[in-house]
From TrEMBL:
Pfam families noted in UniProt: Radical_SAM (PF04055)
Identification of the protein by name: PA0069 family radical SAM protein
Radical SAM core domain mapped to chain residues: 61-301
Keyword Iron: yes
InterPro entries: Elp3/MiaA/NifB-like_rSAM, MJ0683-like, rSAM, rSAM_sf
GO molecular function, one term: iron-sulfur cluster binding
Superkingdom: Bacteria
PANTHER family per record: SLR0285 PROTEIN
The organism's taxonomic lineage, starting at the top: Bacteria, Pseudomonadati, Bacteroidota, Flavobacteriia, Flavobacteriales
Keyword entries, A-Z: Iron, Iron-sulfur, Metal-binding
Keyword flag Iron: yes
Amino acid sequence: MNPKTTIKGRGAQINVPNRFFELSHEIRDDFLEFCRKEGEVSDKNKTHYLEVFPKTIVNKLTSPDVGMLYSMNPYQGCEHGCVYCYARNSHEFWGYSAGLDFERRILVKKDAPELLEALLQKKSWQAHPIVMSGNTDCYQPAENEFEITRKCLSVFLKYKHPVAIITKNALILRDLDILKALAKDNLIGVNVSITTLSEDTRRILEPRTATTKRRLDTVRELSNSGIPVNVMLAPIIPSINSHEILHLAKLASDHGASSIAHTIVRLNGAIGSLFTDWIKKTMPDRAEKVLHQIESCHGGHLNDSRYGARMHGEGQIAKQIHDLVRLAKRKYFKDKGMPKLNTELYKQYKNGQLELF
């Protein structure tokens, strides 16, 4: 990778046009030349937090591929900057680009705890596990400032309602007190995403995430605190991290994880062009090989929206990946697994424990 040709600390290296807009914005060479001559910076590469005011915070999911029924996201956009992230496409619905805008225009839902409590107080609501970070990471850097995730976890604890978390940030350990309290009643499950053991790869693939060592230490501390942890080996990208599956699985098991899961990378919507631009700039020596291998997992295309195939792929390379994961589970996670979350307590606490009398 040539650091002079890449934007430091960002995954995406460009802003792709928003598919919903007729007009697009581009930085022209003559503007860049003007900035050079004037000694000005053409792009300050700053993150901006923008407050938004949604009417609801919990989303019902209908996809058969995602393994969850309800999710909530305190933030839209994610400063972690994972270049492969499927959530990038959703930023276009807010009027932004799935590229750099996704990492630098973070939408903040400060009223998420109040919206969540209003939902849990509804007579019609029945307890189902709600997944925090179904789209964007609830422990991304913005959480350091706003603490929305911590406030939402307090609401879940108040109502004894089951919640699951997906993250790749060690910041989750800040809330260990609440997580331990939830775990006492089997109300919490954590999914920690660990993509690669190579720090050189992590820095360019997911630049503002916690290091792999910190994530493994997080798995150990959560597990030692009685909080069940599933490690997500996701996504598996052929010829980038596919050779690390067994080693990643062993380390996950050694650090106390209860299980592992995986997906194969898919580059839907704007992500295909973003990833192609990124890999040609960061890994030019293997760019075509990686792109062709991803295509071989998805019927000859980078994009794959087919239910049942888009997350797990098809073809010989996908089969090899699945076989390695099955072997890893059999070798390192035999007779282990994540517990089913408790949905029985919520009814008693829904109306201030009135149901008890």
